[in-house]
Write a structure and sequence with these properties.
heterodimer; A: mainly alpha; B: about 650 residues; 8-stranded mixed beta sheet
């Protein structure tokens, strides 16, 4: 518990760092984009209310000092006031963000968990059957697939399965003639639209998990406790799971943070290629539309999502490794 | 740990093997060896060739590409032909020429970002690990914050404000954000190096920090540094392509990502120019894969455990078959264990090495046999061969001989049949309980799985038996539900012995079970083992390198040298009248408590390389009394005064 609380403290620091970056990046760039933006918005004849909202979004209050601006920005962010989106004017950013969030949570969340579990399992079994067909074929194949760019695989998948074969829809989160509702029909529609993007993320990300788990397992198999388990005459199944697997997965969970960065980057591009109505698509669109308030809000949301996932991996580590629980 | 908040887990959880084994070999950088290893590894070779190809393309695009990449004077959307190998774009540019010219930017970004990230990772990691204290705390915190911040979205945010970001900006941003993972590894490697002797001695000699870092620390990190470089190069290739693909950066630059951007915005796949979209992606993937393959191969080269070696039996020396099993003699108690001509070989890169060479031994019921010898003499291999526990990590194989245990030949048993024998009749105690007990299970759970594998006891019965065996080794049963790391070293070792007693087996094999303890604890544990043995009547094979330790406990002593039995005798006989010069040397290396004062002599030289053992007597090169006949022919084991000795010198008194 102490371990998790301490990690929680660390994430607060990280979140603060992200918010601070969000505040300073537009100010530190040559020509001060934040100021430039505001003057452009003024030129677009936005109503005073919208201008006010934008001022909030950037913490830009010209009569205040930089420090004062920074603290009012921090306060606004913590209260969830990210300003008003230009793209979806006059919606507050929070509203749009919350609309996009479930799509990404389901698509990227489910595929990431699935890829992690699947990769871990394949890596474990492959290493356990050392020298077998699966073990010798695995490394070169997955070393190469995990070097594929996500967005390119996405493009090829659309071309092949949607345009050539016509099996699956080529983009979007649901049929444009549908309206989102809690019906079976819509759920099915959303599922069909999610298959190709999900498979794309799965195919590229699973390789990394397989390879690290395989190498961890091979290292763990040389440990004395595995030999001891054999000496005890335990069933191979038991040795594989509770002696090799449970110890080999621990560094994989620690490495989650690193690998997640790649998956998030990939998922953003996959959503973009598929026009999937999630956070990543909205994020890239906000960049194209120069909707900076929306972009900043989405960036923070992505940071929070990544931190939550890493925290979940930490909780899993604490559950699986008694030594972390006893750390003082 | 001076970084309190984070990074604590990987020091505990990381498997110890990793890159460590090669590090020792590669100290002071032996690049020649490295190159030989790379050229033997197929994955490394493919990676190097791909990288060479791209390097040539990047340096000489003008000579290789048939047209200018920006020339738009061709018909649009052509299919592949001899004039246009990959066809033309919707703007009438030659796709092949664009690909060739695009190589340069991708490769420059990969190498430059790899370089920047690696330098930063090493600088920050070494500083944190070497300086320690508050510096380490601060640097580690920054490292970990950057590690968990999602970099790609952050770069997009930066690029969104800095629309005309050029190549230099991209490299700087990617490099500045991409060093954290490497820095973390460098830091923990530095921390572990700091505890090593050679660094201590450098510091004691008064070397400057900069000298120690440059000459002692960095050379041992060669393979880690290469891995960080390759890892950040992959990340750079993919991230840069992703950014260019969504139109960030200069849309007029010649790069694969930019080609993909234009292909996407022209719906190349729909418009019947699929190669426009496919070819640049393949190139990105191939360049990424070449770095990834190199990285992976490097991992294989630096941790030998990752490679599978097959034992080449044809290259083995002749192995004499074991003698025909003799009929049991009426009235004489058959031995618990009878090992006949047991021979074990290891597969190495240089061919098979025979580590245990035709060993015979016999063990009566309730007997205590000690096996002694220097490290590397094959004693542990012999032990694990008897218990049929060879395999990873040592990957040795029994290539001849018999292990008759209670009348059955264990060598011939299938793994499934062996399981029935294990632990009920034959259990094992290992050198370090810290490593031999599963760190994620409690002692109770580890006792329970052994019980469940061999009995149908209820949970309550298992609990009762577990408490009972703990009491046998004088551990308070309150510790039953503790994890191994919660026990002291002595307690862990006792708990492992308790575990071996669960079914009161006929034979317990012990591999230096006391060597991890201090002298007092060693002594009391030996006494306890002996008492338990007398009480419960199991036989013991006890391996140790410390002859004096077993002098009062073992019935017989087996001295091993270079994979062979050098001498086998009653313990008191061997201590009083050692016959083999090697045994004499071993004894002279220990002070005697009684008897006259003598100079302590070690044995000069070191054990022979078993891949190429010396001719004749294997001890001859180090033997003070060697004669020409010693190296003339193999020396057989012979009986002298009731002892067995592999030496031509001692005369039989009878």
């Amino acid at each position: 518990m102490r371990f998790v609380l301490r990690r929680l403290g660390f994430f607060v620091v990280t979140l603060w760092a992200a918010i601070t970056l969000n505040f300073f990046i537009p100010r530190l760039m040559p020509g001060n984009p934040a100021e430039a933006m505001m003057s452009r918005y003024r030129g677009e004849h936005l109503n005073p209310q919208a201008l006010q909202a934008l001022t909030v979004a950037f913490g830009l209050k010209t009569h205040e000092s930089l420090v004062g601006q920074y603290f009012s920005y921090l306060g606004n962010t913590l209260r969830g006031r990210f300003g008003i989106s230009l793209t979806f004017f006059p919606d507050p950013v929070t509203k749009d963000v919350l609309q996009a969030l479930p799509w990404t949570l389901v698509l990227v969340g489910v595929t990431t968990v699935l890829a992690f579990l699947l990769g871990t399992l394949i890596g474990l079994v492959g290493a356990w059957r050392r020298g077998g067909l699966m073990d010798s074929a695995m490394p070169p194949i997955f070393v190469i697939t995990s070097a594929f760019p996500y967005f390119w695989i996405a493009g090829i998948a659309i071309w092949l399965f949607s345009l050539k074969l016509g099996w699956l829809p080529h983009g979007g989160g649901y049929d444009p003639i549908d309206t989102p509702a809690w019906t079976w029909h819509f759920a099915h529609d959303a599922f069909v639209h999610a298959i190709l993007p999900a498979l794309t993320i799965l195919v590229v990300s699973v390789g990394g998990w397989i390879l690290t788990m395989r190498n961890n397992t091979i290292a763990v198999l040389t440990e004395d406790y595995v030999r001891m388990a054999r000496a005890k005459g335990l069933r191979p199944w038991r040795i594989m799971w509770t002696y090799a697997g449970r110890n080999a997965i621990l560094p994989n969970l620690t490495g989650f943070a690193m690998s997640l960065g790649f998956v998030v980057a990939g998922a953003i591009l996959v959503e973009y290629v598929f026009n999937y109505p999630g956070v990543g698509y909205m994020f890239l669109n906000s960049v194209t539309n120069e909707d900076y308030a929306l972009m900043q809000g989405l960036f923070l949301l992505i940071v929070v999502a990544v931190l939550t996932a890493i925290l979940a991996a930490d909780v899993a580590t604490a559950l699986l490794d008694p030594r972390t629980r006893d750390l003082r | 740990m001076s970084a309190p908040s984070v990074g604590a887990t990987d020091d505990l959880a990381a498997p110890p093997a990793g890159r460590a084994p090669m590090l020792a070999e590669m100290r002071h950088g032996r690049w020649g060896d490295l190159w030989r290893a790379v050229s033997r590894n197929k994955k490394a070779l493919v990676g190097v060739l791909l990288l060479l190809l791209f390097t040539v393309l990047a340096i000489f695009p003008g000579q290789i590409a048939p047209y200018s990449p920006s020339a738009t004077n061709f018909p649009t959307a052509l299919g592949p032909s001899w004039h246009h190998l990959l066809g033309t774009t919707a703007y009438g540019q030659d796709i092949f020429s664009q690909l060739v010219w695009g190589t340069r930017l991708s490769l420059v970004i990969a190498l430059a970002v790899g370089g920047v990230a690696t330098v930063l990772a090493v600088l920050i990691g070494v500083s944190a690990g070497y300086l320690g204290g508050a510096t380490d705390g601060f640097l580690s915190l920054v490292t970990d914050v950057i590690l968990v911040l999602p970099i790609f979205p952050l770069i997009i945010v930066i690029a969104a404000y800095e629309k005309n970001a050029g190549l230099l900006t991209l490299i700087v941003v990617l490099g500045v954000l991409g060093w954290s993972y490497g820095a973390r590894q460098v830091r923990s490697q530095t921390l572990s190096l700091r505890r090593r002797d050679f660094l201590e001695s450098a510091r004691v000699r008064g070397e400057r920090s900069s000298y120690v870092i440059l000459h002692e620390i960095l050379p041992t990190m060669t393979s880690l540094i290469v891995a960080i470089f390759l890892g950040s190069a992959i990340y750079a290739v993919l991230t840069a392509a992703g950014l260019q693909f969504i139109g960030l950066g200069d849309p007029n630059s010649q790069s694969w990502g930019t080609m993909l951007y234009w292909a996407q915005s022209n719906d190349a796949l729909l418009a019947g120019i699929p190669l426009w979209a496919i070819a640049p992606g393949v190139c990105v993937a191939l360049l990424g894969a070449s770095f990834a393959l190199l990285n992976y191969a490097f991992d294989e080269i630096s941790s030998p455990a990752l490679r599978v070696r097959k034992l080449d039996r044809r290259r083995l020396p002749n192995i004499a078959p074991a003698p025909e099993p003799s009929e049991p003699i009426e009235g004489v108690d058959p031995p618990v264990l009878k090992v006949e001509s047991l021979t074990v070989a290891y597969a190495t890169d240089a061919g098979p090495v025979v580590a245990v060479d035709h060993v015979d031994l016999e063990l009566a019921r309730g007997e205590f046999l000690a096996i002694v010898g220097e490290s590397g003499c094959g004693k542990s291999t012999l032990l694990y061969a008897i218990a049929r526990l060879l395999g990873a990590p040592m990957a040795g194989e029994i290539v001849g001989g018999r292990v008759l245990f209670q009348g059955r030949d264990l060598v011939l048993l299938e793994e499934q049949e062996l399981r029935a024998v294990r632990w009920r009749e034959l259990s094992v105690v290992m050198q370090s309980a810290m490593n031999a007990l599963n760190p994620v299970l409690t002692v109770a759970e580890q006792m329970r799985d052994a019980c469940q594998a061999h009995s149908n006891w209820s949970k309550a019965e298992i609990e009762v038996r577990s408490r009972e065996v703990l009491r046998l080794v004088s551990i308070d049963p309150v510790h039953l539900h503790s994890y191994p790391h919660q026990l002291s070293g002595g307690m862990r070792q006792r708990a492992m012995i308790a575990m071996a007693l669960l079914f009161t087996p006929d034979l317990i094999i012990m591999d230096e079970p006391t060597s991890a303890l201090d002298v007092v604890a060693q002594r009391s544990l030996m006494v306890q083992i002996k008492e338990l043995q007398e009480e419960l009547g199991f036989a013991v094979i006890f391996v140790t390198h410390d002859m004096s330790l077993v002098s009062h406990f073992s019935d017989r002593l087996l001295v091993m040298y270079a994979g062979q039995v050098a001498e086998l005798a009653e313990t008191s006989e061997l201590f009083d009248h050692p016959l083999h010069p090697y045994s004499q040397g071993l004894l002279a290396a220990f002070p005697s408590l009684r008897g006259p004062k003598v100079r302590l002599l070690g044995i000069p030289g070191s054990p022979p390389n078993l891949a190429n053992p010396p001719p004749g007597c294997r001890f001859a090169p180090r033997c003070p009394s060697a004669e020409p006949r010693c190296i003339a022919a193999e020396v057989a084991l012979r009986s002298v005064n009731g002892s067995l000795v592999r030496c031509v010198l001692p005369e039989d008194a009878s």
